Every structure is written in structure tokens, then in C-alpha cells.
Amino acid sequence: MSRAGRLGKLALGSAVVGGGLGGIMYRQRLSQNRAVSGADFNAAQDKEKLQVALSWMQQCARASGSSSAVKPEKLELFRYTTCPYCGKVKAFLDYYRIPHELIEVEPMFKSQIKESAYKKLPQMRFGGDTGPYLVDSELIVDALAERVGAETELRDPDVQKWRLWCTESLVRHVTLNINTTLLEAWRGYAYIDAHDTIPLVNKLFLKVVGAPVMYLVAKYKTRPTLVKAGELSEGDDIRRVFHQQLDHYVSEAGISDKKPFHGGSRPDLADLDIYGVLQCVRWHKVYDDLLLNTSIAPWLARMDSETGKTEYSPNVAALSIQ
Ligand SMILES: N[C@@H](CCC(=O)N[C@@H](CS)C(=O)NCC(=O)O)C(=O)O
């Protein structure tokens, strides 16, 4: 049988098994995810311990990574590599040189966050098992921005406009572009193979069940949402629209050699959010495509250098999908 035939059969099998099982799990999961909001969960944390952790991060940020003067404290960032919201937090921590440990969460069963009543990612935890959490990308970045001297950016209407665009629009364009077909959605989970801590059976389950779910979510939820918001029309080339959006950011923000970032001579919260969201597809063909076909590449290179681009191991890069 030809390669295309084998892949076709694999895709069809995955659709049948994954679609059925996935539908049941998806509904269950939605209700778990909605059980507690990020704001309520954060409010229930030990406030004193949380303040200590925030002060520690503030000191780290000010020390610009030279943490000799700073009391070391375990700081974990629970994330999925492909989660755009997690990317925003990661970009912020990297830019401000706040040391942290990345914990890759296996997306099917999420055992790494079983102690947490909040079921979405990203989540930060301070001081190990008994430490307080801070969750939700927006709440995390906002809380930290107050501490690192970026509080005026939180009230800057232009920064907030682009941050909103990032969450409401860019995140959806990214999701849609990596799940255009069932096969693409399956390939979108290739990154998981680089994580030795995740058992093989979970990896397989994720691809068989997770991929069809993501494909269906992109087709029946993400796409209609963008159409309804007037950001996409039926029949549009979704990759082209995505590229146009990024070009629009570069031109509207006036980004150039003379103004390297939206924030001017240094990145602001809009730059960090947008960069972070795009990093969730760094290892994917979608990223190569946008480097080649949009005007965003120089800005991305500058952001890489500003954030120290520490996260992408050669292992993951080697999985780059053609
Ligand atoms: N508003 C939240 C949204 C977070 C979110 O939806 N994260 C996704 C991953 S990209 C998630 O955890 N989904 C639930 C799941 O995987 O079960 C934030 O900004 O942190």
C-alpha cells in the first residue's frame, strides 16, 4: 500500500476511534475546566506565601537574572508546549530573567496537575507541593507586571488593544492553522515524542483521541468564532489571513529597524504576549511559513535575543514538521 494510502487509513481509524471517545471525554473535560475560575482559585491561595513568592520574583527581575542576592525559591511553570497562553507567561518570565522550572503537562490526563483544583494551563506554583499557585496567563502576567515596573503598560490603551487582539484573535488563528486537517492535527502532537517523562501509551492515546478532538474544535468552534467576529470569511485561505494579521501588527505598531518593538526600544507587554503565543508553534511548519512569508521575522529575531530563547531544545527542533 502506498504511503498516502497508509496515512489515509491511519487518519480514518484515528477519526473513528478518536471522534467517539474524544466526544465523551471532551464534554467531561469542559465541565471540569469550568468548575473553578482562575480568579476564584487564585483568591483561595495562601496570600502571605503568594506575596513572598511575588516579592522573590520582583527581586529576580530587578537583579536581571544574577540571582546571587536573591533567595532561591522553587518556581514551577506547568504548561503544554503547544499552549499559546502558557507561551505568554514563559515569554514574560524569560524576558524578565525570572528563573523557573518547566513542567510539561501530558494533555490527556494532566497527572502533573492532579493536586490542583484548577484544571487549565498555565499554572505557576511556588515552593513545591505545598506552595501556593497563581493561574491564568492574564492574571499571572498582570500580577507580575505590577511588580517589575511594567504597571503603566497595563493602563496603556494601545498595549491593551494589542494584548486583547492577541488573546481574542491571534490565539484562534494559530489554533486553526495547526489543525487544518486531521493529519495536521495528528502531526501537531509530534512535540510530545520529545518528552521522555510521558509514557508511550499516553502519547499514543493523545494522538488517537486528542488530534481528532482538536481538528473538530478548530473546524466547528474556532473557525466559526473567527467568521462571526468578521476576521475570516467562508472560503478564505486561512494561512494567508493569518499572515496578513501578523503583517498588520508590524505595520500598525510601526515596527522597523528604528523602532524595534511595539514598546519602542524594548519590548512591552504587547510584544511579549504576541511573541509568547507564536512560540507555541515554533517547531511547526506554520512557524517556518510565517518567517518566510510575512514581515515579522526581524522582530521575532529581536524578541529571541531579548528573551534569551532558552526553551527550545534541539530535540524539539528536530521534530520540525515538513
Ligand atoms: N484564560 C486562560 C485560558 C487557558 C486555557 O484555556 N488553556 C488551555 C490550554 S491552551 C487549557 O488548559 N485547556 C483545558 C484543557 O487542556 O483541558 C488563560 O489565559 O490562562
Write a structural description.
- It contains 14 helices and 4 strands.
- By secondary structure, the protein is mostly helical.
- The chain folds into 2 domains: 38-151, Glutaredoxin, CATH 3.40.30.10; 156-317, Glutathione S-transferase Yfyf (Class Pi), Chain A, domain 2 (Up-down Bundle).
- A 4-stranded mixed sheet has the order 2-1-3-4.
- A hairpin with a 6-residue loop joins strand 3 and strand 4.
- 37% of the residues are buried.
- The site of glutathione has 13 residues, from helix 1 and helix 5.
The computed structural class is: mainly alpha
* CATH level 3 topology of the largest domain: Glutathione S-transferase Yfyf (Class Pi), Chain A, domain 2
For the sheet with most strands, the description reads:
4 strands, mixed
Rg, Cα atoms, Å: 20 Å
Which kinds of small molecule does this entry bind, naming each only once? glutathione
Low-confidence stretches: 313-322
Outline type: globular
Concise overview:
With 322 residues, this protein is mainly α. The chain has helices at 3-34, 38-43, 47-63, 84-95, 137-147, 151-154, 157-178, 182-187, 200-228, 238-252, 269-279, 285-293, 297-307, 314-317, and strands at residues 75-79, 101-104, 123-126, 133-135.
Topology, element by element:
Elements: H1 3-34, H2 38-43, H3 47-63, E1 75-79, H4 84-95, E2 101-104, E3 123-126, E4 133-135, H5 137-147, H6 151-154, H7 157-178, H8 182-187, H9 200-228, H10 238-252, H11 269-279, H12 285-293, H13 297-307, H14 314-317
The structure holds glutathione.
